[in-house]
Amino acid sequence: MPLRSASPTPLPGPLCVEMHMLLALSGRGCLVLHHAVTGGRSPCAHTPCAPPAPTGPKRTLSASGSQPSNGPEPGGQPLKTRTLSGMASKTTTTITPKRIAHSPSLQSLKKPIIPKEFGGKVPTVIRQRYLNLFIEECLKFCTSNQEAIEKALNEEKVAYDRSPSKGIYLNVAVNTLKKLRGLAPSAVSSLSKTSGRRVVSHEVVLGGRLAAKTSFSLSRPSSPRVEDLKGAALYSRLKEYLLTQDQLKENGYPFPHPERPGGAVIFTAEEKRPKDSSCRTCCRCGTEYLVSSSGRCVRDEECYYHWGRLRRSRVAGGWEAQYMCCSAAAGSVGCQVAKQHVQDGRKERLEGFVKTFEKELSGDAHPGIYALDCEMSYTTYGLELTRVTVVDTDVHVVYDTFVKPDNAIVDYNTRFSGVTEADLADTSVTLRDVQAVLLSMFSADTILIGHSLESDLLALKVIHSTVVDTSVLFPHRLGLPYKRSLRNLMADYLRQIIQDNVDGHSSSEDAGACMHLVIWKVREDAKSKR
């Protein structure tokens, strides 16, 4: 039978349909189809296959070829069927991305804006910055965004109301921020709870396998614990903080006069006194004024003064001195007005002083530890004692009384003393009565604690050299004559605000603050020495 030359035969209809479907899947399917079609041409007649039937959302293409099968394919499936199923598995996916919960942030919230205040004690920019920080921390533990904003606004308002200046506001704001961060749930603890891994300490890692089977012992010193610093143990520790003789002289503490009994001497530089005894210099505004023989002003002249101290601050081109009370420049007219001029007078008449004396003690007793603070008012003589408070180591008031001064009062100095006319109306206690009580309570070895205690001893007219002065214990960075205020020391070290009462200072509050500061200092130093 004569052989016929092979001629191209048109592809049957079903194969064309399959070819279009494979081309729609991917380029790789085109190559597979080309291989299957070109390799399967033969002069034999083509046997059409059944058309593909839909099987749901996906179509399964049946295998068909022009070349008869010479045997079963590996795996029991034809080549085209395995190729189509492989491509379908690569082009179809059932993995859905995980949904991430949205956590509210400050950018997505409508931030409250603090209104600008002209001449405010704290710049609005600083207040707004801390308000934003408060909101961020409150969002971590509050149940709703509105609750977080309200709590942050309340915390910022409290910090602003309790701060008389920018420096105090920054301290209070930082403390508030630390408090809010402590309320937020810890991220480290949450991670350790969610992850099922066992937490291994650093000591176990360094110790190796034998760390769990090995015991160690540390020899501790026999000194008392920090919590046990009371009574005789605290007294022995406080001896390290007593002022030396040079420090007592340098800070203006009174010493017994070598020639006059009952007199005192101060080793600091004496102030310039006017030649005329009837001419005095106002200790508030620096104006010279005339007084009569009774000490009253000859002329009714108002006193304009600044109650705040001068503070130097860096400005463009150098330094500028401003008053802390009103931020006015040095030399400006005072921001406060008083009815008349006054003087200090405590360092001018150093007479009528008493000195603490030695006392015998029992075997295990100690001379005692007390904190002391006094309040003074202006009289025709000068500054005189009007209140005294003594507290013990447990900050319990053991002596507190108002004192009637020997001379007539011309200014109660209520802003700083807290003493009013009503407080002294029914008071009959004199300075001599107070001296008698203190000499019975104290001995020469009793440790007295106070802030600038030389001022209180001058008002009490008491000579005592066993003292711990917080203004020396926490010195100013510029040294004398600069001293840090008790209010700033409490805010910086103990994170407490004192002297924020509009009615004036309280001697019991100041004495307790001094005791807290000294005990805190002793305990912190004891921790570092362990």
Automatic annotation (TrEMBL):
Residues 368-527 form the Exonuclease domain. Residues 40-95 are annotated as: Disordered. Pfam families: EloA-BP1. InterPro entries: REX1-like_exo (IPR034922), REXO1-like_dom (IPR031736), REXO1/3/4-like (IPR047021), Ribonucl_H (IPR013520), RNaseH-like_sf (IPR012337), RNaseH_sf (IPR036397). Keywords: Exonuclease, Hydrolase, Nuclease, Nucleus. It comes from the Eukaryota. Its main location: nucleus. Residues 61-70, 80-95 have a biased composition (Polar residues). It is found in: Nucleus. This is RNA exonuclease 1 homolog. It comes from Callithrix jacchus (White-tufted-ear marmoset). The gene is REXO1.
